[in-house]
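Methods, example record. To illustrate the input and output format used throughout this study, we show the complete record for F-box domain-containing protein. The sequence lines were provided to the predictor; the line carrying structure tokens was produced by it.
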Amino acid sequence: MDARQNRMDSPGGKSSLDISSKEPSLSEMTIVQSDVERRQHSRLLSLPRELKDLIIASLGHPRRQDDLNNVSRACRQLREGALPELYKHIDIDLCGERGAHLLRPIPSPATLSSVAQYIRTLRLRAITDGWGRLTLDLIQAAPQVTTIDLDYTIDQRPEAGGASNAIDGNALSSGLAAVKDTLEHLKISYTLRPDVFSHAAISGYCSLKQLETLRTAEIPFFLLLSFYPRGEEGAPPSIADVLPAGLDVLKFSDDEWGIDQIDWMEEAAWNEDLMMEKFIEYFGEERWRQTTPKLTKVVLSLCKFEDKFDWKPSGGVADFEELCTSNGLECEVYRHRT
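The corresponding predicted structure is encoded as:
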């Protein structure tokens, strides 16, 4: 039989199925694959800057952070384009190992500066004493940040006679001053562990007066005006002393415990009557217009207390609502369980 009958003819007289040809080796396949990847990579790099920016921006969704992180590791050129999107919105829970792992490499000044310059939204949760300094460093190194959300975890320490790792209100106020020209939205909260405390959870107070661009603020009453009504160095500041002129919405967030608990402390703590004195001093006769003329809404968040505690619906809550609405402000009071 003619050997030509054992093969399929193809253009040029060559067979499209040549059983005598050997299969490519693994090394040859690897070379081919690498060559394909290089060509694909080079095609991506050869795209106009605008198209590359659009591709990178499409990966900026929180669900695609891993893809964006991989792109940033591909090469220096792609990393430079990916970094602004990668660090634009920081949301880290420091309670878990993953969150701590993300922040551990940052403390060096050079690394901190290279990362923080891109931050627009900074949200850190479960901030403990060990992360307090780095939190302030991040804020001070983020010249373009517009939104900050800080949630502290404060532990009472039996080995220290029950003393806690208190929030330093004065240091926090100084740190926020670094972003006074960009910060628009601020939220600060804290959680106490255990629930019943016998020592102050805050030292000093956190003034927001210097934050010229701030529009909305959510902050615990005790942090804004100091933990004790007498203050650590005399009388606490007035509300007018600690609020910026451009504020639109002010929310006094809950301080995590019932009034009966803080009444156990050696030094007299804030209660409904003392807090109302401060509110009347500021909101009464529309005096708030002198320092915060753009203010439109005030919110008071309370624990869901039983009737034996202060701020009863028919008592302090109704008085606060009447104070605000009669002085030209929208008011909202709500309760939640701790």
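Annotations derived from this record:
The two ends are 92 Å apart (CA to CA).
Residues 30-86 form one domain.
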